Amino acid sequence: MEIRCSWCTALMGYKDGPDMTTHGICPDCAEAEKAKLDRAMIRKYNAGVVDMIEDLMMFAPIPKARV
Ligand SMILES: [Zn+2]
Fold this sequence. Notes:
The chain has one domain. It contains two helices and three strands, in the order E-E-E-H-H. The protein has helices at residues 27-47, 49-59; strands at residues 2-5, 11-14, 21-24. It has a three-stranded mixed β-sheet with strand order 2-1-3, with no helix packed on it. Strand 1 (2-5) and strand 2 (11-14) form a beta hairpin. The longest helix has 21 residues, at 27-47. It is elongated, with a radius of gyration of 22 Å.
């Protein structure tokens, strides 16, 4: 059974099994897909300033109450 990348169809290797093609993702395409996902997340944040501020506040240290 040959293993091909579903994105660029690069041959990634072989494994035991029926004479057919199975699909995976090659390291190059995995990296490209991850970068696309990162950009999509950034666009989402840019589109929703309020969400971003709320998310940032979750990570900000809790200010000490003034006495
Ligand atoms: Zn690929």
